[in-house]
Specification:
The protein is an all-beta fold. It is built from no helices and eight strands.
Length: 132
């Protein structure tokens, strides 16, 4: 068994978010070909997030201040707005477009999980992004 603490996992800055890959491929702290798990933080430090899509995903909201998720069938039609609360679980269908957003001074902090078919196996369809 490998035990990891969030503060020991490297943070990778991406457009619109900071990602910590805990389990999975692509430089994860603990390698796996069966699953992917990590943390994502959305705040002013990372700037706004563009809508993206990837493999089916489970998201657990750890912390939020004035944040929400927008989702929809196309990147230019992510019109459904869901206000977020700590403790919420989101089941995001494969290839559903979504973006996590927040008011000035706000943030969204979450855990994301993928099954065997990780977001990295989706290739170009995820717009070259990783993590929720």
């Amino acid at each position: 068994m490998k035990v990891l603490k969030r503060e020991d996992v490297q943070t990778k800055q991406l457009p619109g978010r900071a990602i910590q890959m805990v389990v999975g491929k692509e430089e994860a702290a603990s390698p796996s070909t069966e699953m992917t798990m990590g943390f994502a933080r959305y705040s002013q430090e990372s700037g706004p997030m563009e809508p993206h899509h990837h493999a089916e995903e489970i998201v657990y909201v750890l912390s939020v201040k004035d944040g929400w998720v927008r989702c929809g069938e196309q990147p230019d039609r992510v019109n459904q707005i869901i206000p977020l609360e700590a403790g919420m679980v989101l089941h995001v269908p494969a290839l559903e477009w979504h973006a996590f957003e927040f008011e000035d001074g706000g943030h969204v902090d979450l855990l994301f999980f993928y099954g065997k078919k990780s977001l990295f196996s989706e290739g170009p369809s995820n717009g070259g992004t990783e993590g929720s």
